[in-house]
Amino acid sequence: MSLQYTAVGWNRQKRVYDSVLGCLAGGYLALFTALGALFHPIATAETLLIRGLGTLALLMLHVILCIGPLCRLDPRFLPLLYNRRHLGVSMFLVALAHGAFSLVQFHALGDVSPPVSLLLSNTRYGSLAQFPFQPLGAAALLVLFLMAATSHDFWLRNLSAPVWKRLHMAVYLAYALLIGHVALGALQSEPSLLLAGFLAVGMTLVIGLHLAAGWKEHKLDTARTLAQADGFVDVCDVQAVPENRARIVSLSGERVAIFRYDDRVSAVSNVCQHQNGPLGEGRVIDGCITCPWHGYQYLPDTGASPPPFTEKVPVFRTQVIGQRVLVHPQPLPAGQRVAPACITACGSKERS
Ligand code: HEM
Ligand code: FES
Q1: pTM (2 d.p.)
Q2: Are residues 335 and 282 in the same domain?
């Protein structure tokens, strides 16, 4: 959490991450160009490098797109989220190298400037077989640039979370443009079964994982809950909420994270103020609900971040009656204190 702009800190964890990523990327490019030279002896080193960088960027984009749904399906993937934006910026740099090399290789020797040549050298938009696929790659690169340039939390604060989130959802637009770039271009000019196979498997994986995660969340959102006369809803057994962790339920269309800690139960909105991370998949650490994505923290009884931080999430009234947890679906203003419901010590019928 940061109050104002601070440059990205390359802590030990990030340095190790970058070194591993650098080695993997270098290894991939070396292998790609070596195998390319073996199986396509007529291809020049420049062509192999351009193709290697392009496929590497696309591979990285697939990994990035799979991380979100994987984490929603199984919390064991959550550590991957920590460096997802870092991976996104690295992917953009690889894609930029591919785009820049292509511009130099295919558009720098003519009598017009490379960007003009990129846009105007082929205008056969009516032909599927000769479709101008390079502008599709350039449009995708532009979207990826906007995302990489605004990836720091500084922009998240200045643009506001909803605008930032909408901008970063454009990654799916970039993905669609790139599928067009490869399917209408590279695959048509020089058909490769391997590239076509990888693209098909990659698309199936991305779409399949998103559908599976969407279905899981749909089931949670449509689970039936019954309201009592006082408006409280019986949501689950106390034992169903693990100590220092939460159970997520859907009440009146909103996801609520019910936390159990220190013999108490509190409920807050499941949506983290940082980047909409699922608070209910986090833990209570040092008395604070800690978001699993980037570690923003909130006090369970007020939903407010501990000072000096200022983020707040809405809180919900809770009761524990017998062994059952009840939650009122009407959220209270973010930051308003609600006494937690006690499980045993304060009497099982106490109302908060
Ligand atoms: C200004 C932007 C771009 C330009 C001018 C461009 C240009 C090209 C060209 C000329 C090729 C054909 C290379 C060949 O077959 O020899 C190609 C292929 C490819 N591009 Fe791009 N591209 C751009 C952006 C991107 C981006 C952003 C990505 C991915 C993130 C990408 C991924 C690919 C892939 C995967 C291939 C297929 C490589 C292969 O045939 O093995 N391109 N691009
Ligand atoms: S989404 Fe980043 S800390 Fe919660």
Answers
A1: 0.78
A2: yes
